[in-house]
């Protein structure tokens, strides 16, 4: 429908504009240079979520594939990071000029996003932003590539990407807050997803679960009573 296409175009243009603004800030020598890195990272993450989904699983493609409206909590987390950065920049400007720390954060962001996109591409049509409750005819258990390293590489990537954005911004409060909130979210999400995967694949998934770690610290997934 034309209205849907226009809504997709508006979101894509908005993300492209944000990326361009981020590049301009990054190219300058102002105190906002690291925030420019953050803007580029954030806009590229959301745009590439839609792009890779359109390649992998076009049947599941929707406006939600941008993940811009992921949840109220996600939006509040983003807003809180902007507020912290601005306040600390005004009160403690030297805190926002630790280039080596921002570089570490940028490397975390790049690693996390690349790992997540690699997971999406490896899973192909099996990947979906929404946990599936019914097994489709084409649904297979993917254990190759990055799935041979971690059971949930897309979550591992998103976890370190989210924390990396706050290290990049030198936001000490949000670094702790993001780490705790992300860990709790993915612990619950992984348990929910693994119940479904055990239902779908039975012993095949249990064997995979025994051999490959979840990839996230102190998260072992759903407990299986033997």
UniProtKB/TrEMBL annotation:
<feature type="transmembrane region" description="Helical">
    <location>
        <begin position="12"/>
        <end position="29"/>
    </location>
</feature>
<keyword id="KW-1133">Transmembrane helix</keyword>
<keyword id="KW-0256">Endoplasmic reticulum</keyword>
<keyword id="KW-0472">Membrane</keyword>
<comment type="similarity">
    <text>Belongs to the class VI-like SAM-binding methyltransferase superfamily. Isoprenylcysteine carboxyl methyltransferase family.</text>
</comment>
<dbReference type="InterPro" id="IPR007269">
    <property type="entry name" value="ICMT_MeTrfase"/>
</dbReference>
<protein>
    <recommendedName>
        <fullName>Protein-S-isoprenylcysteine O-methyltransferase</fullName>
        <ecNumber>2.1.1.100</ecNumber>
    </recommendedName>
</protein>
<dbReference type="Pfam" id="PF04140">
    <property type="entry name" value="ICMT"/>
</dbReference>
<keyword id="KW-0808">Transferase</keyword>
<dbReference type="InterPro" id="IPR025770">
    <property type="entry name" value="PPMT_MeTrfase"/>
</dbReference>
<dbReference type="GO" id="GO:0004671">
    <property type="term" value="F:protein C-terminal S-isoprenylcysteine carboxyl O-methyltransferase activity"/>
</dbReference>
<keyword id="KW-0489">Methyltransferase</keyword>
<comment type="function">
    <text>Catalyzes the post-translational methylation of isoprenylated C-terminal cysteine residues.</text>
</comment>
<feature type="transmembrane region" description="Helical">
    <location>
        <begin position="158"/>
        <end position="181"/>
    </location>
</feature>
<dbReference type="GO" id="GO:0005789">
    <property type="term" value="C:endoplasmic reticulum membrane"/>
</dbReference>
<dbReference type="GO" id="GO:0032259">
    <property type="term" value="P:methylation"/>
</dbReference>
<keyword id="KW-0949">S-adenosyl-L-methionine</keyword>
<keyword id="KW-0812">Transmembrane</keyword>
